[in-house]
Design a protein that fits this description.
The protein is α/β, with parallel strands linked by helices and 280 residues long. The chain has helices spanning 28-40, 45-49, 65-91, 136-142, 149-167, 170-178, 183-212, 219-229, 232-240, 253-266, and strands at residues 12-14, 100-104, 107-110, 113-116, 122-124, 129-133. It has one domain. The chain is built from ten helices and six strands, in the order βαααβββββααααααα. A hairpin with a 2-residue loop joins strand 3 and strand 4. Helix 5 (149-167) crosses helix 7 (183-212), helix 7 packs parallel to helix 10 (253-266) and helix 8 (219-229) runs antiparallel to helix 10 (253-266). The chain is globular and about 45 Å long. Bound molecules: zinc ion.
Length: 280
């Protein structure tokens, strides 16, 4: 992806230097409570414990040059999403409210609760912020084999897609519908939400390239490889050695690739209704 000569976003909140976020605490019960919360979220508590001294204070970690470069990169991608979504919202007479991007290290406190790096990048509708620990870029590469800067751009623009869903009311509707459903039905609905975010990421790439000429050879392939890598079937196969479709929450590799591709090829917002009967 070409980024030289384009602005970074003013909506980046860099909390990496804070290491432990706002969670300054003594050891003992506080630590146990946090470990439990992280465990419930599906994270890896050792990642938090690893950052604590024995007295419970957190260590400061210096950012590597590579990480700072990645911070600059995601800032430009975020700015590019602002340009595109401002334009698309304007076309339908709406105003786009820009989300914030919080860069953190190891653990973070959001309006959606505590999270650790292990839970991966996420969007919190409660504070309209996207949370990213930049170490996920290495995880993408090493664990999922998704190389290249545009794999990272895909993940960020997917999270921005959730923000768009929030502004349009889709996220709220899905959340309230989920509370009245069986787990299996709720999972199926979440899959549609996630696939739409993939579509919106593709739609973003389409318009960003038209407006700002951002794409280099191989970028779309990098995004598609990343989309395939984070498909539920692939992740389940890797982590538990079998595929359980009822547990899917994001869609298969094939579905994720095809919805991203649809957004990228059409650039047409109206094509992204994953909730329509028979669409998924
Ligand atoms: Zn998502």
């Amino acid at each position: 992806m070409r980024i030289t000569g384009r602005r970074g976003s003013s909506n980046v909140e860099d909390r990496r230097g804070m290491s432990g976020g706002k969670m300054v605490m003594g050891g003992g019960i506080g630590t146990i409570a946090i470990v439990l919360i992280v465990w419930l979220l599906g994270g890896d508590p050792s990642q938090i414990l690893g950052t604590m001294d024995t007295d419970g204070t957190t260590q400061t970690v210096e950012a590597s040059a590579e990480e700072d470069q990645m911070a600059q990169f995601v800032s430009v991608v975020l700015a590019d999403t602002e340009e595109v979504w401002k334009m698309i919202f304007q076309q339908s007479g709406k105003t786009y409210r820009e989300p914030k991007l919080v860069l953190f290290r190891n653990q973070v406190e959001s309006a959606c609760g505590f999270a650790s790096a292990a839970s991966g990048p996420f969007y919190c509708p409660g504070d309209e912020k996207i949370y990213i620990d930049l170490s996920f870029c290495d995880v993408l590469k090493e664990r999922f084999g998704a190389q290249g800067d545009f794999a990272v751009a895909y993940v960020l623009s997917h999270e921005v897609g959730h923000h768009v869903q929030n502004l349009l009311g889709t996220l709220g509707q899905v959340q309230s519908a989920r509370s009245r459903m069986s787990e299996r039905e709720a999972n199926a609905l979440t899959v549609k939400l996630e696939l739409q975010a993939d579509f919106l990421a593709g739609l973003w790439a389409h318009h960003a390239d038209r407006m700002m000429d951002i794409l280099e050879d191989g970028d779309i392939e990098e995004a598609l490889t990343a989309a395939a890598a984070v498909g539920d079937d692939n992740i389940q196969m890797k982590s538990q050695g079998r595929v359980v479709p009822d547990d899917f929450t994001h869609g298969t590799s094939q579905q994720r690739m095809s919805w991203f591709r649809k957004g990228w090829q059409t650039g047409d917002f109206a094509q992204g209704d994953t909730f329509k009967r028979g669409a998924v």
